[in-house]
Design goal:
An eight-stranded mixed sheet has the order 7-16-15-8-9-12-11-10. The chain has a three-stranded mixed sheet with strand order 1-2-3. The protein has a three-stranded mixed sheet with strand order 4-5-6. The chain contains 25 helices and 18 strands. The protein is of the alpha+beta class. Helix 20 (460-467) crosses helix 24 (518-532). Helices cover 47% and strands 14% of the residues. Among the domains are: 16-121, CBS-domain (Roll); 128-286, Beta Polymerase, domain 2, CATH 3.30.460; 506-553, no CATH class.
Length: 554
């Protein structure tokens, strides 16, 4: 029997030259966006390689087109460039190319000698799906009830032919070994339908947001649970809310803000725990850096500036240099008329709820963020001082088990040195109008008046008389601005003085013969003052004093 000849086929390892396209045009950095777009169209190319003084950057035709649609035709092309693009030798193997793309590079240049001969863009087939399984980490790091819930949610999605993913903070916190509290689920399909099924199965309280195709569930996990459809976004103009349409999970991750938030974990049973990391988010977590996903991100949505700094301060991360340059460039284009005051105020509320709001607002101010509120706003050094005192007040309040309105204090620090017109403009831009705005402005005036008086030498009853009518925010602001001896007075009032009351109440006084009306209130006030001055300590002493007053009036 004749043996069959065994044939072997060579394994071909594609090189960077095989994977690249040649649609690259090399230019200098002194072009406008319109000129760069014309150059690409004329040369029928896709990418500009921009040679700068210290580095070579890149910008794609899609970014230039989008910038032109957003009204940036005459802006310098440097406003939308990714600098520091890696350049690989033409003979580099595919494995190295994959690793470079997975490290977060938006694209790669290919060189032969010193000449750029092409580029490799982040194509879907080049490393957008990982092979890292996080199922064991989910089971180990999440509470058992949460890990069980995620598996059952994946089973439910599978039974309905729906793709289900954990996204956002859950993935980030899991990879950072931080406690996982809130859960964001992304649904490839009808998110509202799936949320209803999930709420019914888990007996949760469901709130639907049909306009945005999202839902919130309460009573299902110990933290917050949100469900949203995977989507793509298109911004009609800078600062406006986006138009959304249904998309794949890959498209959904591509429209997010930062690489550390552009990761997802499969929850369907067949691929449970598989990590999707198309832009090197895990690598940036490891290197403790916040990196934006595309050059127009901050222009399309300036509130991402808040988020970039919020994550950086909360996680103690740095902001990647190109991201920082793009951020500053976007702030330089303020104001953004389409950016609503409610969204700005919402971001400030989130900033105020962070563990270190003083540091966060200081960094935002030094970057010039508050020009989004009022053009020409100057972040003076006194604001940094006030924010530092607010942080100290937070520490004192926490130790004293008091709860204050930190957002209002931050707003007061931001407007304290503005003139009345500019202060009103600042608050109005944040949609703070009418009585709330008047109250904040009165806080500044009232605290200034009190600090001009001699509060430190007031008796206890006089201090209570002067501080009692003030709203709590004004007292907090007075503490922030006051010297140490006055702060001690304010602390005493907050902890003791404002709570001090006579042992006798109105009914007791009437039983002793005090007629209802102004006299009743006057007697209660006088009793309170006497207690504050330590001249009364028992109920019997109060009764005796009331009888004495009545006798004197007879």
């Amino acid at each position: 029997m004749r043996s069959l000849r065994q044939t072997t086929y060579p394994q071909v390892d594609p090189t960077a030259r095989d994977l690249m396209h040649r649609g690259v045009v090399t230019v200098g950095e002194l072009l406008t966006i319109a000129e760069g777009l014309r150059e690409l169209r004329k040369r029928k190319a896709r990418v500009l390689a921009v040679v700068g003084r210290r580095s070579t950057g890149a910008v794609t035709i899609e970014i230039l087109r989008r910038a032109a649609e957003l009204g940036l035709k005459q802006a310098p092309i440097s406003d939308v460039i990714w600098w520091g693009i890696p350049a690989l030798a033409a003979r580099t193997g595919e494995v190295t190319v994959r690793r470079a793309l997975m490290a977060g590079a938006p694209l790669l240049f290919v060189r032969e000698g010193r000449s750029l001969i092409g580029c490799i863009e982040k194509l879907p087939e080049l490393g957008h799906r990982g092979s890292t399984l996080l199922g064991p980490r989910l089971d180990a790091r999440c509470a058992p009830s949460l890990a069980s819930f995620l598996r059952h949610a994946g089973l439910l999605a599978e039974s309905k032919g729906i793709g289900l993913f954990a996204v956002g903070g859950l993935v980030r916190d899991l990879l950072l070994d931080r406690p996982v509290l809130d859960v964001d689920l992304a649904v490839e399909g009808d998110a509202l339908f799936f949320a209803r099924l999930l709420a019914e199965r888990e007996n949760g309280r469901l709130t639907l947001h049909e306009q945005f195709r999202t839902a919130s569930l309460e009573g299902v996990t110990s933290g917050r649970l949100d469900v949203a459809e995977t989507r793509r976004e298109t911004y009609p103009r800078p600062g406006a809310l986006p138009s959304v349409s249904r998309a794949t999970i890959e498209e959904d991750l591509a429209r997010r803000d930062f690489t550390v938030n552009a990761m997802a974990i499969h929850l369907n049973p067949g691929s449970f725990g598989l990590l999707l990391d198309p832009r090197g988010g895990w690598r940036d977590l490891t290197h403790r850096v916040i990196r934006v996903l595309h050059p127009l991100s901050f222009i399309e949505d300036p509130t991402r500036v808040f988020r970039a700094l919020r994550y950086a301060v909360r996680l103690d991360f740095g902001v990647e240099q190109t991201t920082l340059r793009l951020l500053r460039s976007a702030l330089g284009r303020a104001p953004y008329p389409a950016l609503s005051g409610q969204r700005l105020l919402g971001e400030l509320e989130l900033a105020a709820s962070e563990p270190d709001p003083a540091l966060l607002v200081t960094r935002l101010g030094r970057l010039g963020l508050f020009r989004l509120v009022v053009p020409g706003y100057r972040f003076a050094s006194i604001i940094v001082t006030r924010l530092g005192e607010i942080q100290r007040l937070m520490q004192w309040a926490q130790s004293s088990r008091l709860s204050f309105n930190w957002l209002e204090l931050i707003l007061l620090a931001l407007i304290e040195r503005l003139n009345q017109t500019m202060a009103r403009e600042f608050l109005d831009r944040l949609s703070i109008k009418g009585e709330p705005a008047q109250r904040l402005l009165r806080c500044i005036r009232d605290s200034d008046d009190l600090l001009a008086s001699d509060l430190a030498s007031c008796s206890a009853s006089e201090l209570v008389r002067r501080l009692d009518p003030l709203p709590l925010t004004c007292l907090e602001w007075l503490w922030v601005c006051a010297p140490r001896n006055v702060r001690e007075q304010v602390e005493w009032f907050l902890l003791e003085g404002r709570l001090s009351r006579p042992l006798l109440n109105g009914d007791d006084l009437q039983a002793l013969g005090v007629s209802p009306g102004p006299r009743l209130g006057d007697f209660l006030s006088r009793l309170r003052s006497a207690r504050l001055e330590r001249t009364l300590s028992t109920r019997e002493e109060e009764e005796a004093l009331v009888k004495k007053w009545l006798a004197e009036m007879a």
